[in-house]
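Go through this fold for my students:
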Amino acid sequence: MLKHIIYPDGRFSIGTERFGLRDAYPAADGKQISPESVSVDKNSICYRMPYGKLFLRFSDFRDGKGLRLSVRLQDVNQAVEFHDFEPIAGAELYGADMLFQQGFGMAGPSGCLPIQELSGRAESFGLLSLFSQERAGSLSICASDYRHVTAGFLVAPDQGLFMEKKVVLSAGFNLEGVPGEMECLPELIFLESTTLQEGLDETAELIAGEMEARQVMPPAFHWCSWYYLYQNLTQGLLEEYVRGMRQKEVPFQYVQIDAGYADSPGDWLIPGSRFPEGLEKASRTIRDAGYEPGIWIAPFMVGEESELYKAHPDWLLRGTDGSPVAELNSFVEPKVWGNRDSHYYILDTSNPEAMAYLRKVFTTLRGWGFRLFKTDFMLWNMKDTSKVRRFDNTRTSVEILRDTLDMIREVIGEDS
């Protein structure tokens, strides 16, 4: 059963008899907070800060197998702007000898690590699970909401000059220095489970429920051009492939055109050298063969040789020095994807004009008959707002990404 213990000085512990964390304390911008005074009761802590009161509140759910930790500011008498806030910082781990970390998108790493063998930082995003190879059970930690800020976890060794080595955990949120985000922080949620797999399943189900995600989708059996042809699919090859699929009665639902149809990323609707008659004809070719058309697209990617870049350099995400952020550079021959571009920039969809352009792209592709959309490199937008120059720097990267995803879903429809 999960329990929490609150100490008079504002420290607290969370865990079961088998494992958990002890002596936690909040931190802001990487430093432990320094309240003027602290008051506690059984389920809450009030830290009186120079700018107002900071409350932590603990509440049980799932008959003691779950615990929620909420954060709230009250009586704020000045603007409070943090880059990041950790309700839990420097908490010593006990009992668990393994952790499961979730990587940040494709970059990873994800998987299980022995805690005592850590020589450096182990970062996890979205969720973290603690467990033991010797004893049953797991303790998973996640956030209640992912609509506004990034939830992150850090496990690392800590050793003082005259102290034995210990392993500590911090859990918190990247506010990206955006004003107002501190006022609506998600809760941290702790779940006790019998096994690691059960804990991961329950955590995923809980997150999906909190975020109102689609939890059941029928499988899509489709052919993707990338894994055999890479960027080399042409209109002629497409006709040859779908003709062969039809003759062999291959039961694909979708035939998906991958990267290579655009001569430069960003020019998604301009006929390229491999599809000189355009994607509308390619879509019709697939549909006439009895399959649903699918398309690859990287919405945030803009090649330096694209007409989009030449016409609208002001639509790009920029660094604090004003130069466009190049997320990928290619100086070898042949260049990546067979394109001419040496630099790949990021479309800033906080700019209404850039968002309107993407809306036009997806509306057109939908109108041409595409029903499967393989959206790629979606985390290119996830740049800390405090470290870049956006059209709108009053919003986090999470909020901008979600706006873009909402627009795409609206345009392509629920049946895509």
The CA atoms of residues 73 and 183 lie 6 Å apart. Residues 352-367 form the longest helix (16 residues). The first strand starts at residue 3 and ends at 6.
